[in-house]
Specification:
Blueprint (H helix, E strand, L loop, with lengths): L9 H20 L3 E12 L5 E4 L5 E8 L1 H5 L7 E5 L6 E6 L5 E2 L5 E6 L2 E17 L2 E2 L6 E9 L2 E7 H4 L4 E4 L2 E2 L7 E8 L6 E2 L4 E10 L2 E13 L5 E6 L2 E8 L14 E4 L6 E6 L1 E2 L7 E5 L2 E8 L3
Parallel strand pairs: 1-4, 8-12, 9-13, 17-20
Antiparallel strand pairs: 1-3, 2-8, 3-7, 4-6, 5-8, 8-11, 10-16, 11-15, 12-14, 14-16, 17-19, 18-24, 19-23, 20-22, 21-24
């Protein structure tokens, strides 16, 4: 067997050692720096049965460490912090956010995350069906008044945190102008909700028809009672004020109703529990009695238990 000779290919061996030493010197001599960056916060595995209450943080601050040329090429879109919400339950929950939960490019180290603790409040997600209340503004042409206002669909389903959904009674439409109108108006408009925490179960639009009728006669009725409908068993209700004034604008078609001294006014309390609510007044008066302008248009209803 031929003996191993340590100096065989000595030149190649020395070249390899030299290159290795040179590479080590380059890496070891490169300065390490830190950089702060605000990055997006992702919420993963969000339970479908829960809703966020309030605003959860959408960004966090991180400190990154690495070579200057490496850190200089990084943008906020290259770094993402992530919270796993799997198993969340209703209530206020605290989540720890550590450097290990931040995804960064190779060769970059996360040294700090601020805030280190994230507080999130969850509520049960519920759905409810509410009426559509068309929003109409403006005054028709002289000698005309607004008759019936009809929305298609008349009701929509809303979704959101339980504590907010229970107080929502209506969805509203994009504003429809009847300024100087002397004929019926039909518009396809967007639907929405005044509470940003609530959303429509399905994105919808509504077709709203506004009747514009010629004025033939105006009558004002005082001390008109407002019925409280749909109150659940075991509850009582008090409306303030208990009576309102109504101005009737009648067309020729209302000739048979001009002897009418009252109109049917009501608020719908279906599904409401104990509490205080501001409710719009509605009317079931037949179309032939003309348009009813109610003053005030809404009242405050105090709902309580019978034994309170």
């Amino acid at each position: 067997m031929e003996a191993m000779w340590p100096f065989r290919n000595l030149g190649l061996k020395l070249l390899s050692v030299g290159l290795a030493v040179l590479l080590w010197l380059v890496i070891a001599g490169e300065e390490t720096v830190e950089r702060g960056l605000r990055v997006p916060l992702e919420l993963l595995q969000f339970p479908q049965s829960l809703e966020l209450v309030g605003d959860a943080p959408t960004q966090v601050d991180v400190r990154l460490r690495g070579a200057p040329r490496r850190l200089g090429s990084i943008s906020a879109s290259d770094v993402v912090a992530a919270l796993d919400l799997r198993g969340a339950v209703p209530g206020r929950r605290l989540y720890q956010l550590t450097p290990e939960q931040v995804r960064v490019p190779f060769g970059v180290e996360v040294t700090q995350v601020t805030p280190a603790t994230i507080a999130i409040v969850f509520e049960r997600s519920v759905a409810r069906t509410v009426s559509v209340s068309p929003t109409v503004e403006g005054t028709p042409a002289q000698g005309y008044y607004i008759g019936s206002i009809v929305s298609d669909p008349p009701r929509v389903e809303i979704v959101g945190p339980e504590s907010s959904v229970r107080y929502i009674d209506e969805a509203v439409t994009e504003t429809i102008s009847v300024e100087s109108a002397d004929e019926p108006i039909t518009r396809t408009v967007a639907l929405g909700l005044l509470d940003p925490a609530i959303r429509l179960k399905a994105s919808q639009r509504a077709v709203v028809s506004v009747e514009i009728l010629p004025v033939r006669r105006t009558r004002r009725l005082s001390n008109q009672a407002v019925e409280l409908r749909g109150l659940s068993d075991g509850l009582k209700a008090l409306a303030v004020p208990s009576t309102v004034e109504v101005e009737l604008q009648e067309s020729d078609d209302g000739a048979d109703a001009r002897g009418l001294d009252t109109v049917t006014l009501f608020v719908d309390l279906t599904g409401l529990g104990a509490g205080e609510y501001t409710m719009n007044i509605e009317t079931d008066s037949p179309p032939e009695s003309g348009s009813a302008q109610i003053d005030p248009p809404a009242l405050v209803v105090h709902v309580s238990r019978v034994d309170d």
